[in-house]
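[job 4471] stage=fold_predict status=RUNNING
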Amino acid sequence: MNLILHLLLDAAVIFGLAYLLPQVDVKSFGTALLIAVLLGLLNFFVGWVIRFPLNLVTFFLLSGIVRIIVTAILLKLIDKFMDSFTIVGFWPALLIAIAVAVAGTLIDRSAPTQQMVDSGYMASVLSQLRFA
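[job 4471] inference complete, writing structure tokens
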């Protein structure tokens, strides 16, 4: 469930920033969803290959910044593969990468932990929402 939420949120962030930034062009929300899926797959399969040497150079002190830069590089790579997605320049890709990272962090922080689910906290919250 969390994966689907992340993909939808990433697609919404990409689509929203494409609407706001003139340097970014996304044809439809479906394209933004495909970009989010490709970004997740590339981060999983290729991102660590790029991140590891950069983290070694920075002694793992700047791993968050390295992750954002690698995400921006992967967005530019996706731009080269897809005709329906265009980013002009590196700065808009970096801005999208920062927005995706912030949105992902907010979702991860607001998601219930397994301890909350096991204790019945989520059931009581849901019952309060149904009767409110």
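[job 4471] summary: The beta strands are 24-26, 85-87.
[job 4471] exit 0
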